[in-house]
């Protein structure tokens, strides 16, 4: 910034008062609008979420910038004060020293320190005279009667780590004629550390030789703190996002590794190995589908499974655990693995559910779960099943449907020694059995009874379906919204005629 008495150019004319007034008014209005937007964004109870903290820091940084702009425009409107340093007179004599501070004004100066964030200075290289504005003395916490530091003394006020930076800026200005524009930290007279932004340029004489250096220094400590807070929170938020993406990838890979790999229809029991052979009456035609939530972060612990047992019977199960992410999918993998292992031993669904409850209760990752476990005997067309706080299977026969009456059973993991009853249902050829998890409805506000009614309304379409896969497509057409709030599973078993 050139001296007001720059030797190479005339002093700038004072700004038009009306134009500056208009800028000040617009700045105040903008600050008020910013405060209103910030209050609306934070709400009545500011959140401690990382994204909210990042937004709050950006708002504070913008407020600091607007406050600085308002201060600068105010100084521009007032013009140069009487004590602003001027270039030395032509005779080379130093400007008179500022008058001593009147007694009893120390308290007033201390109060003004927080408002005096901008000061100016000039160092004359020919006479070694130094002129500081009163604002700059207050910015440095130095008394005017102690005199202004020379360029050689100035580094003694600068934090040791920043002295090299200041020296390079001053040298570039005096030797190479480059403007100064940089930040460094100073240690005030009271020992506090402040960050100062310095802008200046050399003042040349008629021969183009550097005569003096003029500079404006601004306290930007709070701005720097807000800027650092923005960067720190942004970095933390980015790290959080990277971690979330990694956890989601692990959860998806674990889910895909555990859930049955078959797509389309599957026939149990597999009574014939000849391709295209007609299924034996009573054989189950199976199809299932996993419905992800609209949010990629909500990978939950829902599962579906169909397993052919050694004695020719078939195990069918669906269920879900509370929570999302790797913890939920890993607990689901543990539970489903245990269910398969215990079912192979020939255990009935009721005892199976009790053992799963004990396993989940003793798990290192406490969670609650709901499940339906069914065992189908193709020889007698009998379905034995048990449930733990889960929607009952729906049975469709002859163009109509109904929900099976559930046996007693509470959520898995709720009570250590819970007992689970078992029920039996006689099926007929052509019947369709639908099992699903709680999140089948796209909106969580939709009740379980409403979901059941919507499924039962699909009975005519199930009656004309030629495969279990067609039945699954019917369910997806009814419930497969892209705006799903939670993930879900559906499993359809159709008894061949």
What order do the SSEs take from the amino end to the carboxyl end, as H and E? HHHEEHHEEEHEEEEHHEEEEEEHHHE
CATH topology of the largest domain: Phosphatase 2c, domain 1
Q: Classify the secondary structure makeup into a structural class.
A: alpha+beta
Strand arrangement, largest sheet?
6-7-16-15-12-13
Q: Tell how many strands the DSSP assignment holds.
A: 16
Number of discrete domains: 3
Q: Main β-sheet: number of strands, strand sense, barrel status?
A: 6 strands, antiparallel
Helix content: 25-40%
**How much β-strand is present in the residues?**
15-25%
Task: State mean pLDDT (0 to 100 scale).
Answer: 82
CATH homology superfamily of the largest domain:
PPM-type phosphatase domain
CATH architecture of the largest domain: 4-Layer Sandwich
Outline = elongated
CATH class of the largest domain: Alpha Beta
Report the end-to-end length measured between terminal Cα atoms. 94 Å
Helix segment count? 11
Indicate the radius of gyration in whole angstroms. 39 Å
The unreliable regions are 1-13, 82-116
Which SSEs are present, and which pair or pack?
Blueprint (H helix, E strand, L loop, with lengths): L16 H26 L7 H29 L27 H8 L4 E7 L5 E3 L1 H7 L22 H14 L3 E8 L5 E12 L5 E10 L1 H38 L7 E3 L15 E8 L11 E6 L5 E8 L4 H19 L4 H13 L7 E9 L4 E7 L5 E4 L2 E4 L19 E4 L5 E5 L11 H9 L2 H6 L3 H12 L8 E8 L2
Helix pairs in contact: 1-2, 2-6, 6-7, 7-8
